[in-house]
Amino acid sequence: DAGITQSPRYKITETGRQVTLMCHQTWSHSYMFWYRQDLGHGLRLIYYSAAADITDKGEVPDGYVVSRSKTENFPLTLESATRSQTSVYFCASSAGRTTDTQYFGPGTRLTVL
Amino acid sequence: AQKVTQAQTEISVVEKEDVTLDCVYETRDTTYYLFWYKQPPSGELVFLIRRNSFDEQNEISGRYSWNFQKSTSSFNFTITASQVVDSAVYFCALSERNAGNMLTFGGGTRLMVKP
Fold first, then answer.
1. Smallest Cα distance from B89 to chain A, Å
2. Model pLDDT for residues A47-105, shown as the tens digit of each residue
3. Residue B99 φ/ψ, nearest 5 degrees
4. Could you give the CA distance from residue B9 to residue B25 in angstroms, rounded to a whole number?
């Protein structure tokens, strides 16, 4: 009954390093999402996925890569981390399209030094 | 393009007071969905309510109530007899039928309930 989990919960890295944030959901939801939350900007969509092997860009995709080989997992990779990517990252999932609610994971606080 | 505005960035009340959080939205779609989420100090995002554009009935859940008015494009949230545990950031969000289930969030309202 884990629902949606994210790992790690906290991460400190250095500029230029590759970082992968993990997201796992146990509901078999079709849709999964990645958001970042920054002071002054609220939550902004980075990428989303409608199903395994189907991904699409959101509002702020630059500097991020996603993949979805399995329905339950949706990792987010920062290929070369920058300080501007210091943020809290939330993963979410929903069963279907706009009729369904998005449920959020606990978040990952990422600091890029 | 869809947009959500929460004009109140911060509200402070004393316990047991009633408080209303405002949410105004913009959309060109005729079918859309409105949401409220709560983010307590622990940081997680908790779903509170979903409303579709064809259902303007107000909803009450315990001390929480929501007033949806299409005529003013507003979806306001009222907490009656506020409690310290209501202290959180509250987000209003909008999803359009034609936007692939993407949520657009307002900037959030930080509610502080003082004992």
1. 11
2. 999 999 999 999 999 999 999 999 999 999 999 999 999 999 999 999 876 568 999 99
3. -105, 20
4. 16
The answer to whether residue A29 scores a pLDDT higher than 70 is yes
Q: Are strands A87-94 and A108-112 parallel, antiparallel or unpaired?
A: antiparallel
Query: What is residue B71's DSSP assignment?
Result: G
CB contact under 8 A, B105 and A107: no
Contact B100 A56 (CB under 8 A): yes
Q: How far apart are CA B78 and CA B92, in angstroms?
A: 13
8 Å CB contact of B106 and A42:
yes
Give tens-digit pLDDT for B40-52.
Answer: 999 999 999 999 9
> Whole-angstrom Cα distance, residue B16 to residue B93?
27
Whether A104 sits inside 8 A of B44 (CB atoms) is yes
Mean pLDDT score across all residues of chain B: 93
CB A72 within 8 A of CB A25: yes
Residue to mutate among B4, B27, B103, with most A CBs inside 10 A, is B103
Distances (CA, A) of A45 to A33, A38, A62, A89, B6: 7, 12, 11, 10, 18
Tell me the count of A-B CB pairs closer than 8 A. Answer: 61
The answer to whether residue B103 neighbours chain A at the CB level (below 8 Å) is: yes
Q: Position B53: which residue type?
A: S
